[in-house]
Amino acid sequence: RLQSCDAPTPDRCRRSPPARRLFSQPPARTPSPPSPLNSSRLAQIEALSTPAAPAPRLSPSSASTTMSASTLRASSGGRAATAPRLGRPQRTTALRVVAFVDNGSKKSTAGGKPWTVDSWRALPIVQQPTYPDKAEYKRVLDEIAQYPPLVFAGECRNLQNKLAKAAAGDAFIVQGGDCAEAFDAFNANKIRDFYRVMLQMGLIVAFGGGVPVIKLGRIAGQYAKPRSGDMEKIGDVELPSYRGDNVNGAEFTPEARIPDPQRLIKGYNQSAATLNLIRGFSSGGYGGLSRVAAWNLDFMAKSKEGSHYMDIAHRVDEALSFMSACGIDVNSPSLNTTDFYTSHECLHLDYETCLTREDSTTGKHYDCSAHYLWCGERTRQLDHAHLEFLRGVGNPIGVKVSDKSNPEDLITMIKAFNPDNVPGRLTIIVRMGAQKLRQHFPKLLQAVKDAGLVVTWQSDPMHGNTETVQGYKTRRYENVRAEIEAFFDVHDQMGTVPGGIHLEMTGDNVTECIGGGSNVESTDLESRYHTHCDPRLNAEQALELAFYVASRLRSRRMAAQLNN
User: Fold this and answer.
1) How far apart are the first and last CA of the chain?
2) 104, 343, 391, 457: which has the fewest Cβ within 10 Å?
3) Alpha-carbon dihedral 73, 182, 478, 552, rounded to 10 degrees
């Protein structure tokens, strides 16, 4: 078993060229010989592997921010502890870098089938780009496989423990972010504004609902998008579909739509820089309760939701003053730091495989591109590659289901992803539209309940409510809220637990969704419609939903107290 070290330093690590792995281990320990390979396995490895490339030369920001001991953290040993405050110095756990080759010594099984880091390659796969320059594509993947992890296994385990609490009703997930992150929208101010809105939503739900909030961003990796077709046609011109900025460009030109492997490297570097800034915010005092009034965005100051939020902020300030008067240390880390986790859709499997590492503490593999990954409606086929990949990684994962899901397939899928029925391992993200949710969701809840399975239920009220108005893809705030209302109503009827919400939203003052307190009309869509893909709630609309969720959680808490 590889041991923890105080800090990742070059003289305590060495690269083993034959297997292209990075080791950090006690000097006295001799590595076990690799398990024998059959001829077909060897041929697969030879086709996918090349001699180890030199260490990648990253940009100054990504290189320093990714491996800084003061910003990146991992779990020390196997301690069962509360989730770490991101960014605070802590002992780090050595990770073994696995490129395309897995030594086969650690296997996760489901349905009797062995799992390896590349066992998904033998199965059908959808939603993958086709790169014209195969040699360049392989070179880029080999380079990314040598890059440091973006997150650590210990952080993923801590998140899973929190998600288990959400499954039991002792916490609530607020997940949100861009439909698809854009390279040209990457800057510190946008990241900060998004982070501020997420903090505000978390405070509203925690203060009003009376439960801890798990803040989970669709950020630092949400660069790939599934598409309804491989080709897009405008007029008489047909071009490959836009699949996200880490694959090709959104511009409708033949040159922009060619998949470019270099975009994967850019996506990695921007994800590393984004994570570094978020970790700094979370641990440097910006996320502390003493700053709740400073989180309000300038354009929200005179809005109804902004005013309601400031009322809460003033009440929090008064509570802190009272605590200080009672002799309680209001400068303690628990009041001045916060936990923030990253997530994205697991879509580009070659990229995800390159960042999959074996954790030395547990022997499990973790996809170190994000703390949490989800499988979309278009890629959750039971006999396909995405399910196969995700069932073997140790990250907490989510699966999106619609009204097309039937109870039998859902049970089979849950057992494949979580055969040991571990709380917090699996989140089912429901996206149906309000009317269909009231019709179909009770059947799914009852089937899971009867099977004795533990999952965390989350509402995605966005994707079942998309329509086109005046040539713009949009969503109506009233429909989004109606689906959240239906989600809570059905749980109340069934005696089950609503675990969270999953929104596409931004900290920008956009006009992409119609309605809500910001009074966006259909005629306003063209004024500030900036999304590269699907329409997002603006900050005011997102806070309005947070207030509604808080009111429903408060009602559930009061009803539970009366029953007790």
Assistant:
1) 48
2) 104
3) 0
Asked if 256 and 250 count as a contact pair (C-beta separation under 8 A), the reply is yes
Our CA angle for 68, 69, 75, nearest 5°, is 125
Question: For the ranges 22-26, 204-208, 324-328, which has the lowest average pLDDT?
Answer: 22-26
Task: Quote the DSSP letter at residue 320.
Answer: H
- 385 contacts: CB under 8 Å, gap ≥ 6: 120, 121, 123, 124, 125, 349
- The answer to whether 339 touches 282, Cβ cutoff 8 Å, is yes
Q: What is the DSSP string of 489-541?
A: HHHHHHT--EEEEEEEB-SS----SBBTTTTB-GGGTTTS---SSS--B-HHH
Q: How confident is the model at residue 564 (pLDDT cuts 50, 70, 90)?
A: confident
Whole-model pTM: value is 0.79
Residue 13 has φ and ψ, to the nearest 5°, of -130, 150
Q: Which two tokens stand for residue 513?
A: 């969704």
Closest CA to 273 of 64, 505, 89: 64
Q: What is the dihedral of CA 370, 372, 377, 383, to 10 degrees?
A: 90
Which residues have a Cβ under 8 Å from the Cβ of 3 and sit 6 or more positions away? 24, 25, 26, 94, 360
- pLDDT tens digits for range 517-550: 778 888 888 889 888 788 999 999 999 999 999 9
391 in Cβ contact with 422 (< 8 Å):
no
Query: Among 305-314, 419-428, 459-468, 524-533, which is the least confidently predicted range?
Result: 305-314
Cα separations in angstroms, 402 against 316, 430, 436, 446: 39, 6, 9, 16
The β-bridge partners of 498 are 457
Neighbours of 307 (CB within 10 A): 12
Which two tokens mark 184? 């040209």
Q: At what angle do helices 407-417 and 434-450 cross, to 10 degrees?
A: 60
Provide the percentage of residues in the chain whose pLDDT is more than 90: 62
pLDDT tens digits for range 234-243: 999 999 999 9
Strands (E), 402-444: 426-430
State the residue for tokens 């069932």.
391
Beta-carbon count within 10 A of 529 CB = 14
Q: Where does residue 350 rank: exposed (0-12), middle (13-18), buried (19+ CB within 10 A)?
A: buried
- Measuring CA to CA, which residue among 339, 245, 279, 268 is closest to residue 532? 245
Alpha-carbon distances of 288 from 85, 209, 277, 283, rounded to whole Å: 12, 19, 15, 9
**Cα(486)–Cα(461) distance, integer angstroms:** 10
In DSSP terms, 401 is beta-bridged to: 430
Coil, strand, or helix at residue 248? coil
What pLDDT is attached to residue 19? Answer: 37
Structural contact between residues 209 and 549, judged by C-beta atoms closer than 8 angstroms? yes
